[in-house]
Each structure stands twice: as C-alpha cells, then as structure tokens.
Amino acid sequence: MTLKTVDPVLGETQTDARRKLDALFRRQAPALLRFLSRRTNPEEAQDLAQEAFLRLTHAAGKQALQKPEAYLGRIARNLLRDRAKSVSGRRERSHAVLEPEAHATSDGDPHLALEARQLLERHEAAVLKLKPKTREVYLRHRVDGQTYPQIAAALGIGVSAVEKHMMKAIAAVDRSLGRP
Fold first, then answer.
1. Are 72 and 37 members of one domain?
2. pTM
3. Is the same domain home to 50 and 73?
4. Record's family (predicted)?
C-alpha cells in the first residue's frame, strides 16, 4: 500500500499537482514561446519560457493558483520588462557617441570618419522610421536627457508606456544597425 501525501496548500496530492503543471506546460508552452519570440530572439525566448515555468512551479508550490495561465502570462511579461530594463541600462552605460567628428582620429583618418557618418545616417534613418510617439519618447530620453517619469508627465502617458516605447525604439534601432 502506497501512502499519498496531500499538499496542504494545493489540497491535492503532489503527483496530481505535477500532472496539472505538466498539462499546463504542454498546453501553454507553444503559445508562450511564440509570444516571447516576437519580442526577443529564439534562444532568449527559450530561456525566458523556462524561467517563467520555473517561477510558476515555485509559486504553485506556495499557494493555490486560480488562473495559472494568466499568472504565467504575467510572469512572462514581467521577465520581458526586467530584461528590457537591464538591456536598456547596459546600453545607456555603454552608449556610443554618434557624431562623426568624435570617431575621427587626431590624424583625420577619412575611413573612420566615413564609417562614423554611415553609422549616424543608419541611426537617423532608423529613428525616422519609428512611429511618431515612439520616436518622440526615444528622442526625449536619448537626446534631451529626460527621465521616464518626466516623459510620461509631458506626454500624458504612464511610465510603463514610456518603457514600452523605449523597448520598441531600441529594438528597431538595433535591428537597423545590425546589432543582436
């Protein structure tokens, strides 16, 4: 005779809880991967999906989840937001100056100046392709040096909307500059 232990939080056996999580994974993993892949590269999408399910499993072990699918979606969005903040912070700390004169050496190497001008032109073209509000948010932050809360107040939108516009702008500029 085998004795089944009942999880006090979930109110079910650990085997049943694992089966439910496994079924949830089988149902939700493809859609979650599509969602994440549209917002990041495929390898990172796999890592984020795995992290999302790990966090869901951890949360399910602590409390009963009424809507695990919705909770999983929230976890995935939070992971993307956290990733964007860390990527944006790294980029801002290592933000290259896009002025051709700044890249030319003291001996006036014309090749370096040409590369810098071409980089600047590609950057400007990418910024011009952005949707108007996204472009305005991007320029207010990168050119005018405004903080996200300042931009949000000036445009009458939330800070999270500013973050989303910045994520879109940074991704579009990176794609046009051939950055991963």
1. yes
2. 0.43
3. yes
4. Belongs to the sigma-70 factor family. ECF subfamily.
